[in-house]
Each structure stands twice: as structure tokens, then as C-alpha cells.
Specification:
30% helix, 7-stranded mixed sheet, 28% strand, Rossmann fold, alpha/beta, Nucleoside Triphosphate Pyrophosphohydrolase, 323 residues
Length: 323
């Protein structure tokens, strides 16, 4: 299910007010509960959400708004699509949603106190929440999450397939191809993608041995306090020479079930996505072609079930740097 902003420059100039939020959920024993907030001024029951700030990507908005309205720090899971509805000023509001698990640590560290915007929140079973929510659009989004729960894909991890930023061209470089660095624009792109990558909670950063890939991941590594693991297995040189070791690398990442970023090259990206599809027994593998056709510093987030990756790809979304 493709989602996300797809790299569009979002603003209110087109008559649309963009917003984002999340179905925040937790598991208590065998039961799943979702978070519903009560808004003070509107006197309604809704899912946490809010308007896009200038310069933000929608995933950033979703994470920020969840924290501001509930005090919970979450990472995003699968996208749940978007809803549109008219607002009083004659414009249309478009709200994008993700699933977001609230860990025990996040709940324990929540800083929520009733305030002039949100005066209460409740953890509720899904049927109770569906009956309580004020708006049909929120009900539709929560029902989509309930459908994911029925399929066993509520708890997920992601493989994030990233193309390196804009690099010095081969005709501009005298050294080996693998040593080509990023251009100034590529360095800006590498910094611009950090806030969006952070929303998905990467725990592992893997890069081709090429300088342009390592430099693309460097700002993210510094922001997250992670080291960059390099491998020739997803390098362009190895891929063009003997195919590299894409399957082995992807298989290991799926076995580990930790959200990871794999930074590679344009010719290699479709193969990485193909192997993800094959190894997770995703039937619609041929539909991944577009997800691998990325511009510099674009990335595709492939969401997989943490309980059983062989259930297939749960969702896919693609994002671009906000330059």
C-alpha cells in the first residue's frame, strides 16, 4: 500500500491544509488497546493529529503531534492512508495516518498533563474506541488498523532502501568510481533526510562501501548515535561485476527483524526490493518496480510483520529530502 507524501512539496497554497497523525496502540497481555484523546475546545473524541508545520515531512508531523497531544514518543509503523474532508474556511483538510506502537517505556515516560488543547486521553479496546470516536474519518482509519491486526501485521519493522545523495559526476572525478564524494547539494540532502528517517526508528545503518553512500548516511549516524556498517555486497561495482550479495544481506536483515537503512545505488535498489519481496513471499513482487526507481536521497520504507515476515510486505511508502 503506497503512502507518504511521495516527495511532494506540501503547502496550503493549493487550497489543501495538510495534517498527520497516528493510531497509537499498545498490547496488554493478549489485548490491544488504542489511544483516544478528548479535545478541550472541540469537545470531541479523536485520534491524535495536527497540521503540518513549514518545512516538515508528514511523518515528522505525525510523530510531533502525537508527542504534543499525548506526551508519548513513538516511532511510526505502517501507513494507514489519508482522509479528506471540508473545513469551515472552504478549504479541504488532508490528514495522513500511521500506526504507532507505544512501548512500555514510552508509556512510563509520558509527560501528558491535561491542557487547553487536550484535557484527557483513554486507552480503549478497539470496539469501544470505534463506538466513541466523533468523526467518521477517524473511525475509517481505526478500522484499517483493526484489519491489519486481524492479519497479524500490527507490530512491524522496516527495511529502508535509500539512494545516495547527489554525487560528483564520473567525468568530474579522476579517482576510482567508488571514491566519488557527494556534491554540496548531496550533503544538504543527506542532512535533510535525517528528521524523516528518525521517525521510523532505525537501529542499524548499512552502506555500500562507496564514499557517496557513506557520506549520505553520516548525518543520520551522528543524529542517532549509530555506527555505519559498510559492505561491498550492495555496492555498484560488485553488483555490476558479479551481482553482489544482495540476497544474503537482505535475508540477514529480515532474520534480525530490526528496522534498518540500506544505502545503495540506483542499479542495485530494484534488486534489494525484489529480494525483500521474494524472501517475504510477497506475491505482488512485480509491483515494486516504481519503489526502486529513486532520485538522489529518496528512500522507500518497506514495512514487514515483526511476528512473521513471510506474511509478505505489509506496506510501502517513499519519501524525498525536504531541500
Amino acid at each position: 500500500m503506497p503512502s507518504g507524501d511521495g516527495g511532494r512539496r506540501l503547502s496550503t497554497a493549493d487550497g489543501v491544509v495538510y495534517a498527520a497523525g497516528a493510531v497509537v496502540w499498545r498490547r496488554i497481555g493478549d489485548d490491544v488497546q488504542v489511544l483516544v484523546i478528548h479535545r478541550t475546545q472541540h469537545k470531541d473524541f479523536s485520534l491524535p493529529k495536527g497540521k503540518l508545520d513549514p518545512g516538515e515531512a508528514l511523518p515528522q508531523t505525525a510523530v510531533r503531534e502525537v508527542f504534543e497531544e499525548t506526551g508519548l514518543r513513538v516511532f511510526l509503523g505502517t501507513p494507514l492512508g489519508a482522509v479528506e474532508y471540508p473545513i469551515p474556511n472552504g478549504r479541504t483538510k488532508e490528514v495522513h495516518y500511521w500506526a504507532a506502537e507505544a512501548t512500555k517505556k514510552a508509556v512510563a515516560e509520558s509527560t501528558f498533563t491535561p491542557n487547553k488543547e487536550v484535557d484527557g486521553l483513554d486507552w480503549l479496546p478497539i470496539p469501544t474506541a470505534l463506538a466513541l470516536l466523533t468523526y467518521a474519518s477517524d473511525i475509517d482509519v481505526l478500522q484499517l488498523f483493526a484489519d491489519q491486526l486481524d492479519r497479524g501485521v500490527e507490530r512491524t519493522f522496516a527495511l529502508i532502501v535509500l539512494r545516495h545523495g547527489k554525487a560528483v559526476q564520473p567525468y568530474e572525478w579522476d579517482g576510482p568510481d567508488a571514491s566519488r564524494p557527494l556534491k554540496p547539494r548531496g550533503r544538504r540532502q543527506a542532512g535533510a533526510i535525517v528528521p524523516t528517517l528518525e521517525t521510523f526508528g532505525p537501529r542499524v545503518l548499512i552502506s555500500s562501501t562507496a564514499t557517496r553512500c557513506i557520506e549520505t548516511l553520516q548525518p543520520t549516524a551522528e543524529a542517532l548515535g549509530l555506527e555505519i556498517r559498510t559492505t561491498a555486497g550492495i555496492s555498484q561495482d560488485a553488483y555490476e561485476e558479479h551481482g553482489g550479495s544482495v540476497r544474503d544481506i537482505v535475508e540477514r536483515r529480515i532474520e534480525r527483524r530490526k528496522t534498518a537503512v540500506l544505502c545503495s545505488h540506483s542499479p542495485v535498489l530494484p534488486e534489494i526490493l525484489h529480494e525483500i519481496a521474494v524472501l517475504t513471499e510477497t506475491r505482488s513482487a512485480l509491483r515494486l518496480t516504481r519503489a526502486g526507481m529513486l532520485s538522489p536521497a529518496e528512500f522507500t520504507v518497506v514495512h514487514l510483520s515483526a511476528d512473521d515476515p513471510t506474511l509478505g510486505i505489509a506496506a510501502i511508502e517513499t519519501h524525498s529530502p525536504k531541500e
